[in-house]
Design goal:
With about 190 residues, the chain is of the alpha/beta class. The chain is about 40% helix and about 20% strand. The protein has a six-stranded mixed sheet with strand order 3-2-4-1-5-6, with helices on both faces.
Amino acid sequence: MILYLMRHGQTDWNTLGKLQGKTDTQLNEVGVQQIHEASLKLKDEQIETIYASDLKRAKKSADIASNVLDLPVHYTKRLREMCFGKAEGMKKNDIQAVFPYIDQAFNDINNPERYAIAYPEGETVGEVQQRFMKLVNKLYEEGRSKVLLVTHGMLIRIFAETCLKKTIRLENGSVLRVVFDEKSKKFKSPKILF
């Protein structure tokens, strides 16, 4: 099974450097253009279906991809961005000042506490990874071969760090392709397509 993980297009909060999380922001004009161009680049990949987060910025991105690729979209909460709780709407410097311990632990891939720590009223890395893998297992059991997942930057980063053991930060409208190896039951061959 091949997964194409697309980060939604740009929002105004992206340009302001604000942490979005589950806050339901919209794509801006640049974001719409980014996704249109990304979708055109995926036309030759023979993707069979699209799954997307149900948050507005990902939903709009998936709708654009659906129109360009002429594919159905299935919306799911499992692809939602990590909930950052009280940190949502804050900029990086403010987060570091208000939640220094959480921010440091959260961004240290070698810190075992990272998987259980959360911003106040937010989700843990472990919870995000668990809900994402439930969807991946469902797709695998259904016998899917090539699926576009329209989702969010932190969810993709968490997936990469836990399953691929590398930090990957995608820009808005970028796509990471990974292969799920049926024999080893592991992801391999990660490649940022654009």
